[in-house]
């Protein structure tokens, strides 16, 4: 047989595969009932609107399309594929509320599975397996368990504040070597004011001279400012947090960068990122996460030509090693925790540490990390309903992937919004300083955390920042069966007819634009695009904080007046605070909303409390910040896009009046 015969057969098979897949795609477009909907004409035959959508946070495309076509329309994907874009609250509630009938499309699940080094975690599982995992994981994210993790958030917030103050100290000393700067930090209880009474005149003069010198130092210190890449530092802080609070693992990522930045040649304010100096697990996670986030033409081809995944999924050596490291460390962590649980007096019943050791409840955080609580919950489940070792391992990397960059992005955008609104920032600081912090910063009392969690203006700021800067700007779903989807108000189709539902066909893809919904002018008002925490005042005033336990799927829809209530009246179907920021779900037919939302809210509030009391954030007005979407929305300096994601903020020590 001539050599070219098998080659010819192979070639014909490959060409045949591409031609039939391509034809199937075109046929599917042709048969989709979504063709009947109005929408913008595609700007490219192959890429449809994918490029515009990738830049949606900067070009405002979704809002512009909505203004033209309403809340229900189609845009185009690869080779002109019809995709439903809906911000109609009833349609969104239907799709997200039937999570198992409308799962994430394969290409999203695939990217997430690559990111978390496996497809058995909560982010990627589906149907009964997802329901089982969600039930077992829920106790780890309960309001009471998250509250018990607050000291971890506190310790990391204080560590970051101290690092930034050290940068300021170095800067002040560089300007004035005599200054020998020290910063009194208000979270340590604040400086004591030494009143000199009954001293004779000379002593009083000396005191005055010292006081004036101190004042001058304080002035110097408060004049000194450095620019920090807030995104990088906060990503380190939130990585440390999820390591400690998630599974008792110390990444020490902040400390590594602080060491580096204190070296004489380091640029002031730089986190000093040196991959080789990072801890082993941080390096492994970054390698996997970075690889999964890379977007190129192959990413699109893999979506539509699944056979290519055999080649496309091949991992490089670094990625393989990173996966092996994650697996090894993950298994070690699971073993350690299992051993600790076995040693608990009530382990036989799978009880909680509260039940096991009431006398030691508040003394230690041990046993309260997400992994320990999940393992305990697993043990107390029916043996045939338990998570396998691999499933548990995948949850560890899922917590890392889902819980660290999201909160870092949320905090970064909050500081950015505050830097752009100095009056709001000053007002927030006044409110934060109204809470006395009398105990040592290392172990503040629970009552302080309660007060921070319930501080109305802080709540308003957090809600407003998460409304305006949702870290996850949209999500996608695919129909697993033909369906008739309800709408809240009729819309006009391509033929000019009024329609009161959307017909979808199995395989149709839909996009839910969380960020655009959070900014809809008909819900939030004409000033929807402005950062105005006051819009929440009426809803927050006197309302219970979001830390209250809520049944899975019920969400926290408190607030009876103001913007929150207006959104709720219009049935904005968000899990928390009538916002779409954390998605939504339904306990009965599939709850895929963020399981970690309470964790991030408490973490955000503690960080803002600690950082903003003593530091002022500003931004050079000439710096233009853009948003880049790569699963999470991150900032970029427009004129320095080659430098990648960054958020340069200027920080300044801001002494309280008593300093
Ligand atoms: C500000 C911070 C956060 C934001 C904005 C956020 C946002 C979201 C959103 C929008 C979803 C739903 C995605 C979809 O429907 O396609 C989600 C799911 C999820 N989030 Fe978060 N998240 C945050 C923090 C966290 C944290 C701290 C954790 C864990 C420690 C976490 C763990 C998860 C997990 C495991 C899921 C998948 C849930 C499921 O499918 O059942 N998230 N998150």
From TrEMBL:
Q: Could you list the residue ranges that cross the membrane?
A: 6-27
Q: Does the keyword Iron-sulfur apply?
A: no
The annotated regions of Basic and acidic residues compositional bias extend over: 203-218
Keyword Phosphoprotein in record: no
What ranges does the record give for the region Disordered, renumbered to this chain?
A: 172-219, 540-564
Question: Which intervals carry biased composition (Polar residues)?
Answer: 176-187
Record's InterPro entries?
A: Cyt_P450, Cyt_P450_E_grp-I, Cyt_P450_sf, Cytochrome_P450_monoxygenase
Protein family membership: Belongs to the cytochrome P450 family.
Q: Which residues bind heme?
A: 594
Upper classification of the organism: Eukaryota, Fungi, Dikarya, Basidiomycota, Agaricomycotina
Please name the GO terms that the record assigns under molecular function: heme binding; iron ion binding; monooxygenase activity; oxidoreductase activity, acting on paired donors, with incorporation or reduction of molecular oxygen
Which named protein is this?
Cytochrome P450
Which portions of the chain have biased composition (kind: Acidic residues)?
543-553
Q: Which species is the source of this protein?
A: Ceriporiopsis subvermispora (strain B)
| Alphabetical UniProt keywords | Heme, Iron, Membrane, Metal-binding, Monooxygenase, Oxidoreductase, Transmembrane, Transmembrane helix
Hey, which pathway is this one from?
Answer: Secondary metabolite biosynthesis
Q: Which cofactor does it need?
A: heme
């Amino acid at each position: 047989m001539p050599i070219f015969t098998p080659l010819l057969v192979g070639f014909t098979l490959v060409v045949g595969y591409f031609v039939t897949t391509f034809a199937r795609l075109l046929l599917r477009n042709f048969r989709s009932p979504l063709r009947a909907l109005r929408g913008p004409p595609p700007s490219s035959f192959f890429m449809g609107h994918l490029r515009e959508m990738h830049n949606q946070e900067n070009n405002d495309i979704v809002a512009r399309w909505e203004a033209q076509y309403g809340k229900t329309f189609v845009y185009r994907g690869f080779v002109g594929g019809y995709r439903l874009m809906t911000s109609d609250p009833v349609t969104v509630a239907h799709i997200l509320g039937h999570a198992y009938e409308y799962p994430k499309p394969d290409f999203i699940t695939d990217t997430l599975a690559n990111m978390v080094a496996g497809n058995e975690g909560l982010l990627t599982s589906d149907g009964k397996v997802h329901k089982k995992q969600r039930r077992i994981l829920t106790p780890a994210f309960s309001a009471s368990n998250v509250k018990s993790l607050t000291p971890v958030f506190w310790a990391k917030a204080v560590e970051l504040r101290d690092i930034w103050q050290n940068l300021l100290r170095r800067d002040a000393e560089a300007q004035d070597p005599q200054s020998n700067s020290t910063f009194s930090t208000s979270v340590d209880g604040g400086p004591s004011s030494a009143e000199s009474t009954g001293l004779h005149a000379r002593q009083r003069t000396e005191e005055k001279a010292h006081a004036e010198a101190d004042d001058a130092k304080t002035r110097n210190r408060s004049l000194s400012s450095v620019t920090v890449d807030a995104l990088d530092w906060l990503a380190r802080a939130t990585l440390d947090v999820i390591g400690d609070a998630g599974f008792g693992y110390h990444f020490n990522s902040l400390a590594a960068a602080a060491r580096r930045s204190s070296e004489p040649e380091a640029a002031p304010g730089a986190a000093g990122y040196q991959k080789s100096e990072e801890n082993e697990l941080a390096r492994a996670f970054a390698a996997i996460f970075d690889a999964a986030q890379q977007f190129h033409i192959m990413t699109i081809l893999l979506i539509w030509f699944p056979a290519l995944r055999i080649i496309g999924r091949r991992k490089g050596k670094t990625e393989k090693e990173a996966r092996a490291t994650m697996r090894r460390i993950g298994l070690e962590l699971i073993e350690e925790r299992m051993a600790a649980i076995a040693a608990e007096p009530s382990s036989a019943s799978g009880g909680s540490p509260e039940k096991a050791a009431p006398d030691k409840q508040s003394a230690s955080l041990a046993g309260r990390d997400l992994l320990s609580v999940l393992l305990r919950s697993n043990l107390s489940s029916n043996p045939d309903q338990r998570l396998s070792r691999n499933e548990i391992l995948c949850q560890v990397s899922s917590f890392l992937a889902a819980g660290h960059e999201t909160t870092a992005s949320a905090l970064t955008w909050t500081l950015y919004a505050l830097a752009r609104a100095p009056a709001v920032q000053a007002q927030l600081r006044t409110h934060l300083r109204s809470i006395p912090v009398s105990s040592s910063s290392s172990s503040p009392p629970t009552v302080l955390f309660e007060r921070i969690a319930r501080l109305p203006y802080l709540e308003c700021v957090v809600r407003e920042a998460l409304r305006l800067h949702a870290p996850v700007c949209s999500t996608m779903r695919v129909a697993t069966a033909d369906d008739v989807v309800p709408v809240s108000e009729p819309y006009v189709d391509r033929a000019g007819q009024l329609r009161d539902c959307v017909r979808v066909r199995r395989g149709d893809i839909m996009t839910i634009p969380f960020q655009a919904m959070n900014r809809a002018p008909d819900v939030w008002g004409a000033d929807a695009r402005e950062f105005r925490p006051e819009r929440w005042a009426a809803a927050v005033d006197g309302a219970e904080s979001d830390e209250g336990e809520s049944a899975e799927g019920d969400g926290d829809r408190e607030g009876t007046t103001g913007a929150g209530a207006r959104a709720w009246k219009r049935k904005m179907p968000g899990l928390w605070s009538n916002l779409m920021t954390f998605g939504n779900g339904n306990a009965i037919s599939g709850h895929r909303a963020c399981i970690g939302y309470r964790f991030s809210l408490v973490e955000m509030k503690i960080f803002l409390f600690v950082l903003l009391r003593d530091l002022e954030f500003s931004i050079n007005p000439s710096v233009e910040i853009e948003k880049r979407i790569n699963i999470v929305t991150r900032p970029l300096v427009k004129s320095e896009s080659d430098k990648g994601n960054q958020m340069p903020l200027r920080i300044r020590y801001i002494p309280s009046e008593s300093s």
